[in-house]
Design a protein that fits this description.
Helix content: 55-70%
Shape: globular
Oligomer: single chain
Distance between the termini: 55 Å
Largest sheet: 3 strands, antiparallel
Number of domains: 3
CATH superfamily of the largest domain: Hypothetical protein, domain 2
Strand content: under 5%
Radius of gyration: 21 Å
CATH class of the largest domain: Mainly Alpha
CATH architecture of the largest domain: Orthogonal Bundle
Structural class: mainly alpha
Number of strands: 3
Order of helices and strands: HHHHHHHHHHHHEHHEE
CATH topology of the largest domain: Endonuclease III, domain 1
């Protein structure tokens, strides 16, 4: 059973683990002196939302090969971006990333903002993601909470508690933060949290903010993805889409949602990818 530790003891545990077992296979952690490094960070943070690291590594490398800079991404068409995103799920993220790239190029001279507030103003970027991008891209000390970080702090400081709120974690995150090297400290927390998940179990279930991900098979998410894949090949009529999906009763709702999100559009009797 875990012990409740002093902050300095906790820091030593995290650093010791990281020194011995840091993940060197994550491509978005390399090339920190590259002029495009902040862009790599932004892409990886959006990809890692609700997607496992091993799936992201391969797609990240493909993405950077296709869109090596934020300018090349901003100039891309949505259908090309969705093709590149295929397999990651939650396709709105791809659209948000494309829209964010356009704003960054047009309003920020192609430089990823270093202020969390400016990042939060971009499509699909919340408070935690904005802070994480600033930390990793610019090595600036900011506070944020995500699943691995919750895992680490709940394991060591709330071993017997249930329904732990993030507001209870934030003072500990702040007091333990390495303000001289926040980037690597958070990398260490992430790697240690990943290890705890595998060795101890899903500690984040004890968080007040924990939400179990719904089953993908047979879900509306799966139907959404199927619609986009079909329309990325060519335009289709409603009857064609309905027949291909065994007349799924959720089709009208899914198509309407994709239209509202401007992922697809209806032209005449056919649906196509939005442009």
């Amino acid at each position: 059973m875990p012990e409740i530790l002093a902050v300095n003891q906790f820091q030593e545990i995290v650093w010791d683990y990281y020194r011995a077992h840091k993940r060197n296979n994550l491509p978005w952690r390399h090339d920190i002196d590259d002029e495009n490094f902040a862009y790599y960070v932004l892409v990886s943070e959006i990809m890692l939302q609700q997607t496992q690291v091993n799936r992201v590594i391969y797609k990240f490398n493909q993405w950077i090969e296709l869109f090596p800079t934020i300018a090349t991404l901003a100039a891309a068409d949505l259908d090309v971006v969705l093709h590149a995103w295929s397999g990651l799920g939650y396709n709105r993220r791809a659209k948000y990333l494309l829209e964010s790239a356009k704003v960054i190029v047009s309003e920020h001279e192609g430089r990823i903002p270093s202020e969390p507030g400016l990042l939060e103003a971009l499509p699909g970027i919340g408070k935690a993601t904005a802070a994480a991008v600033v930390v990793y891209a610019y090595n600036l000390p900011r506070l944020f909470v995500e699943t691995n970080i919750r895992t680490v702090f709940i394991h060591h400081f709330f071993p017997f508690a249930e329904h732990v709120a993030d507001k209870e974690l934030l003072p500990l995150i702040e007091s333990s933060l390495d303000k001289e090297n926040p980037r690597e400290w958070y990398w260490a927390l992430m790697d240690y949290g990943s290890f705890l998940k595998q060795s101890v179990g899903n500690i984040s279930q004890k968080s007040k903010h924990y939400k179990k991900q719904s089953t993908f098979e047979g879900s509306s998410r799966q139907l959404r993805g199927a619609m986009l894949k079909l329309l990325l090949v060519k335009k289709r009529t409603y009857d064609e889409l309905s027949a291909m999906n065994l007349f799924d009763e959720r089709l009208d709702e899914v198509l309407a949602a994709l239209e509202r999100e401007k992922l697809i559009k209806k032209t005449g009797v056919s649906y196509t990818i939005y442009q």
